[in-house]
Amino acid sequence: MNTYDVAVIGGGIVGAAVARLVGGTTLSVALLEARDDVGDGTSKANTAILHTGFDAKPGTLESRLVARGYDLLGDYAQATGIPVERTGALLVAWTDEQLDALPGLRAKAERNGYDACEIVEAAEVYRRVPALGPGALGGLTVPGESVICTWTTNLALATDAVNRGVTLLRGHRVTQAHVGPGATRLATTRGEVTARWVVNAAGLGADALDALFGHDRFTVTPRRGELLVFDKLARPLAPCIVLPVPSSAGKGVLVSPTIYGNVMLGPTAEDLTDRTATGTSEAGLRFLREKGAALMPRLMKEEVTATYAGLRAASGHDDYLIDLDAEQRYLLIGGIRSTGLTAGMAIAEHAGDLLKGHLDLSPRAGLPAPPRMPNLGEAFPRPYQDAAAIASDPEYGRIVCFCERVTRGEIRDALTSAIPPAGPDGLRRRTRAMNGRCQGFYCGARVREIFEGEKK
Ligand SMILES: Cc1cc2nc3c(=O)[nH]c(=O)nc-3n(C[C@H](O)[C@H](O)[C@H](O)COP(=O)(O)OP(=O)(O)OC[C@H]3O[C@@H](n4cnc5c(N)ncnc54)[C@H](O)[C@@H]3O)c2cc1C
């Protein structure tokens, strides 16, 4: 059996970023993912904000890696076509106490190396976001906060990894680890995989995996965040991200444009025990509607396209938990709670710095160029709008999903890509098909038919 130099466990944004980085060397690398697709865990269901890190706890590893990740992912997005909208954010104070907190938040941002925040008066708050509910007393601008496509981010990193020679093993849930003198044997649901080094980037499963290596240092608490997605007609109501003043309970409920042209409201923050509880709840949605009614009453009159929930991997530590065990040749990347989309590439860089003392991570000559990803962003040209693309390939002129204007050509491209989707939901994340106001009611059967047809 082949022994890999490095096995990375977890095909979310963090694991994909690590596999991409290590895959750019002469080392042999496997990326093991329990599910049938990459990016099917927490990385598919978040608020998709590219954070500046202005409100992180200064001096923490998270603060440093979010700021670094913001730059790394911003550059990588440009190189690969991951859509980013530089909308900026406005943090709104609704009480005197919150208003008094603004100078402290600006000072904190500066301690985090971000000095572009400005305090603005109520009139300026309403000039920027006229649809806000009554009672705003002032605000803090955060011009760098941006919206991004989390699906394309995960897929770009994983595709890059595969193009660099990483072996992607989907449907491989790691169930046992036997650390031997020269290599670790990983028992998986699809047979054994051996590797000299193991990186644990298993998100919600990172503590269970850590325990397989004999550790007992943290417990993941799934912190559910539920969100409401409003129809595209609501988009003018949210010209930028509207943030609450953060509290000890977390970042709070925000209103944000999405990269697909919608508006979202959320997330909630609720600690659970069930790590599979990604459904929404009546109580959560009621809470969001109450919050939304105060924040932006006009938004509540708009139609809801979808609801969803994601689980943050809260760890009880107030920082990331990244630790290398040289004896076991094992690296834990745990507790990547609510900023891992932004920080993923910087976490990989940090992981690389830790591994460098033990492995030769010099970049290999002749690496392939980063993949050029299909654009899912509403603000940028899509194939159905591109006369030249349609002229050279009429499939880009055949719309299958009319809500999101997804063409037959884009679906074909996804199904024949380096990491084809395992099912219709994966196809949705690669194309936006069935992601619109009808949620697949009209196009679902056709999309499934194409999917099944291509699979044969
Ligand atoms: C509601 C919400 C809002 C958020 N908003 C933002 C935001 O706006 N900006 C931001 O930067 N971040 C945000 N985040 C955080 C961000 O989504 C996460 O930090 C990031 O997705 C974590 O990525 P990951 O790779 O660590 O985990 P995951 O994406 O969960 O990947 C871990 C993978 O490991 C696999 N796995 C687990 N156990 C095993 C095993 N035993 N064997 C093999 N595979 C295994 C899982 O199947 C999974 O695919 C938000 C999170 C939530 C929930």
TrEMBL record:
Coiled coil: none annotated. Residues 5-353 form the FAD dependent oxidoreductase domain. Residues 399-452 form the BFD-like [2Fe-2S]-binding domain. Pfam families: DAO, Fer2_BFD. Transmembrane segments: none annotated. It comes from the Bacteria. InterPro entries: BFD-like_2Fe2S-bd_dom (IPR007419), BFD-like_2Fe2S-bd_dom_sf (IPR041854), FAD-dep_OxRdtase (IPR006076), FAD/NAD-bd_sf (IPR036188), G3P_Oxidase/Oxidoreductase (IPR052745). This is NAD(P)/FAD-dependent oxidoreductase.
